[in-house]
Amino acid sequence: MGRFTRGGAMAGALVLAASLALAGCGGDQKKEVEFVGGTVATPSAGAATPAQSDGASPSAPTADGLTVSPADGAKGRPVSTEISADLPGGGKVSSVTLTTGDGKQVGGKMRLDGSSWVPSSALKYNTRYKATVTGTGADGQPRQGVSTFTTMAKPKSMIGSGLYLFDDRTYGVAMPVVAEFSPGIPKKDRAAVQKRMFVKTDPPQPGAWHWVSNGTQAYYRAPEYWQPGTTLSVRIALAGIPLSNGRYGNVDRSATAKIGRAFEMKVDNATKQMEVFQGGQLIKTLPVSLGKKSTPSSSGTMVVMEKKEKTVFDTMDEPDPANQYRTEIDFAQRLTWGGEYIHAAPWSEGVQGRRNVSHGCVNVSMAMGRWLFAQTKVGDPITVKGTPRKLEPGNGWTAWSLTWADFVKGSAVPVPQGGSGPLV
Q1: Which of 95, 164, 343, 395 is least enclosed, having the fewest CB within 10 Å?
Q2: CA 306, CA 109: separation in Å to the nearest integer?
Q3: For residue 99, pLDDT beyond 50
Q4: Active-site residue 25, yes or no?
Q5: What percent of the chain has pLDDT over 70?
């Protein structure tokens, strides 16, 4: 078991994102991560999503009765601003055009609930924009409104963020969309942030967001594992979102990735065997050794987070001398931030299948470690059952350790039965 302190979990996440994604705070060999330039989309509940006001100035009605937001002449608008309109007595917006002062058009899409128009990328700081909204009133007559507004200067206080997803990569069927925030998102702000996290799946599959770790992470998953061959298109449109703690979102992140074949590992402490399934069919059974009594393995469904053909486990700063060691490891596959891995352990081959002797890891033979390493992808699930320790929420990508009913309880907005779809 590789050493990792829970207090350093956020740093490790921002670092595993350095090898997994894109930004990273320092960490030991177990925490190498990188935050992928990506964004996340949070399909929110079926309820209509209110337009992002971001503290904007109140909208002013135009001469023909169509009200545009931001109001004409508004200044200091967040770069996360969305365009909305109100037609008295009802009606429907048909188009929104947003241009910069020099006439350059900004792309964007309407939210599916029709509540607002979302620019396809964050607006620029200190920039003047002109929004033209057309629609049809309740009387069937065309309406148009125009508003010119200016965005705010770049704020000094921002949060850090990351997305554990790479463009053009192929992941396992249990790969959750994982968004990371440092510091965490205050509870009162999570709904607004979640409504700016967009996920689209092809073929379409419902999903939901779940917040963990004091708002430092949010996971997006479907009720069941992703269908093999699914394309995930994700945007976390965080740039410029004002938070109640005086900070702002730092950047938009986006990524498009694929889901590969169905591959799953199941470990039973009672038999000390791992069963490996591909496409729903059992393809191999192999002996394992799990964590000994003083350092038990976690029971629950985990996900392969990163893979290292060779690495070093160093626990020399552990307070208990019995748990201090520095060992070269082959075919290591991380499962938790706390340092649980699947890895080759030639020193325990004599007891694998019979007795638990590890520091919490799933020990396999050198031959089976090499074989598994060649088969797995980041995002492949492994379920361990029968150990005295339960998997801690947020200790790794724990999106699948909850039932769907419990998972949706972690959403900051209501989730319709069965899950929600894309927002735009």
Answers
A1: 95
A2: 35
A3: yes
A4: no
A5: 82
* Neighbour tally for 278: CB within 10 Å: 13
* Domains of the chain, CATH where assigned: 9-44+156-260+405-410 (2.60.40.3710), 60-150 (2.60.40.3780), 263-392 (2.40.440.10)
Structure-token match 């999903």, residue found: 207
**Annotation says 343 is catalytic:** yes
Q: Do 362 and 382 contact (CB within 8 A), yes or no?
A: yes
Give the end-to-end CA distance of the chain in Å, rounded to a whole number.
43
**Residue 423: other Cβ atoms inside 10 A:** 23
From the list 302, 8, 305, 22, the residue with the least C-alpha distance to 163 is: 22
CB 79 within 8 A of CB 239: yes
Which string of DSSP letters, residue by residue, matches 199-258?
Answer: EEEES---BEEEEEGGGTEEEEE-SSPPPTTPEEEEEEE-TT-B-TTS-B---EEEEEEE
Q: Measured between alpha carbons, how far is 41 from 225 in angstroms, rounded to an integer?
A: 18
The pLDDT, as a whole number, for residue 387 is: 98
Which residues is 276 bridged to in the sheet? Answer: 265, 284
Select from 181, 182, 119, 183 the least CA-distant residue to 151.
119
- Looking at residue 322, what is its pLDDT? 66
Query: Rounded to an integer, what distance in angstroms lies between the CA atom of residue 217 and that of residue 236?
Result: 12
Answer whether residue 50 shows pLDDT above 50.
no
pTM for this entry: 0.85
The active-site residue out of 25, 210, 359, 361 is: 361
Whole-number Å distance between alpha carbons of 97 and 63: 19
* pLDDT > 90 fraction of the chain, expressed in percent and rounded: 76
Residues 28 and 15: their CA atoms lie apart, in Å, by: 9
Q: What is the mean pLDDT of the segment spanning 359-383?
A: 98
Q: How far is CA 55 from CA 76, 80, 242, 282, in A?
A: 10, 11, 8, 56
**DSSP 8-state symbol, 420:** B
The SS3 call for residue 351 is coil
Task: Tell me the C-alpha distance between 370 and 189, whole Å.
Answer: 45
